[in-house]
Design brief:
Length: about 90
């Protein structure tokens, strides 16, 4: 099983159990750009379909335009901004 397949299985488990919140810690870290965006598309689609909040912790800047709300934590201070929520 590839890294991308493992990521998708983990997402599916959370959704099947109808969790109100899914925490995704670096969900795209081991993936190439194409597979990373596939995982983000799945997360966004499932969040809408299952009315699940998905919290993503990442350093992967290419996924940031896909997020609707962004929190940056710098020097112990949290800053909130509205994201683009762009679909890919």
């Amino acid at each position: 099983m590839t890294s991308g397949e493992r990521q998708r299985v983990a997402i599916a488990r959370g959704l099947v159990n109808r969790l109100p919140v899914i925490l995704a810690d670096e969900p795209t870290a081991p993936l190439d750009s194409e597979r990373a965006m596939a995982v983000i598309r799945i997360l966004n689609n499932m969040a809408r379909s299952f009315e699940t909040a998905i919290i993503v912790v990442t350093h992967d800047e290419k996924i940031i335009p896909t997020l609707k709300r962004i929190y940056h934590i710098r020097d112990g201070v949290t800053h909130e901004e509205t994201g683009e929520g762009r679909e890919y």
